[in-house]
Amino acid sequence: QVPQVSNNDTQLIPVSALPLEFAATYSFAHFNRLQSACFADLFDSDDNLVISAPTASGKTALMEIAICRLFRDVASRGDKKALYLAPLKSLCTEKAVEWTSRYIRCELQCTEIVGGDANSALEETRSASQVFSQSHIVCTTPEKFVALAGGVTQPSVATLLGSVGLVLVDECHMVGTNRGASMELAVSLIRASAGQVRIIAVSATVGNIGDVAEWLADRNSDVAEWLADRNSGAAKPLVFGEKYRPVPLTKVVLGYDCTGPYYQFQRNLDFRLSGIINTHGTGRSVLIFCPTRGAAQECARLIAQNIGQLTRQPMPVHLTSAFTNHLLN
């Protein structure tokens, strides 16, 4: 069990603590509490880190601080690359667009490699390998990186893997899921082939953070010592609780007895929605999760037919039963 980081007396770190050219890329003056609590571990050391923090708490900036450390020395920027691994292409695209805009003034080239544009797999691999060699920051999926490493010649593989100095693993809780094998293989390839490589893994939902930290142990300095004691050199786990959410989250759990068939129970829950929404979501947007598409349609139909109970106003003309049925069908 890894204890949570205390949120007491966290001094906000000014962005000016970064080198001037990187500090100038931010529009705010101070990092938030989460980023400030991690700053020393990210910027003043080369330790591997596994960070678990709530959604929207500022984890992207954590990776950016590590990028700033890697490229803080202008003279050595051509020696190592930062590799961002995420399970979804959309995440890779998002980070590539954001970091291209942010780091262009620092003369750092950020590139997205997700595949699918070339006429053949060989052409695609050659093109991606060339792009990889010309970039400072590469955003890609684990599957694409593994394919890239396996599709070039042996000397090129060594050069490609050896050029990676920082690996940023987003959504690291994916390790252990159906898609986790590619993530694990990509990270393992780099750790086995690269020299000194730093790994920063982040997630909002990683449950076994101690196991992940043990897996990402820094074995570059003394392999024998690590084999004798697996906790030696383990990546540092940092767990941040709900108090680090930028917007407070109130959790309410309502329990109801299920006395009949499940479909009847599900239908009974739908009829309780008006009261629940009026109690906890008056005047706010509400997101409702349903187990199936059909259940979602029935729930939407019921809400539309009883919209007056939620708004406490007469039903709008365009939400008549006939129109609602036509829309949902």
Question: What would you note in describing this structure?
Answer:
By secondary structure, this protein is of the alpha/beta class. 44% of the residues lie in helices and 10% in strands. The chain has a seven-stranded parallel β-sheet with strand order 3-4-2-5-6-1-7, with helices on both faces. The radius of gyration is 25 Å and the shape is elongated. The termini are far apart.
What's the layout of helices and strands?
Blueprint: H1 20-23, H2 33-43, E1 49-52, H3 59-70, E2 81-85, H4 89-103, E3 110-113, H5 121-134, E4 137-140, H6 142-150, H7 154-162, E5 164-170, H8 180-193, E6 198-203, H9 209-215, H10 223-228, E7 236-239, H11 262-280, H12 293-305, H13 307-311, H14 321-328
Parallel strand pairs: 1-6, 1-7, 2-4, 2-5, 3-4, 5-6
Helix pairs in contact: 2-3, 6-8, 11-12, 12-14
What is the overall shape? elongated
Question: Which oligomeric state applies?
Answer: single chain
**What is the strand content?**
5-15%
Strand order of the main beta sheet, please?
A: 3-4-2-5-6-1-7
List the secondary-structure elements in sequence, H or E.
HHEHEHEHEHHEHEHHEHHHH
Class per helix and strand makeup: alpha/beta
Main β sheet profile: 7 strands, parallel
Mean pLDDT: 81
Helix content: 40-55%
**Counted beta strands:** 7
Number of helices: 14
Cα-based radius of gyration, to the nearest Å? 25 Å
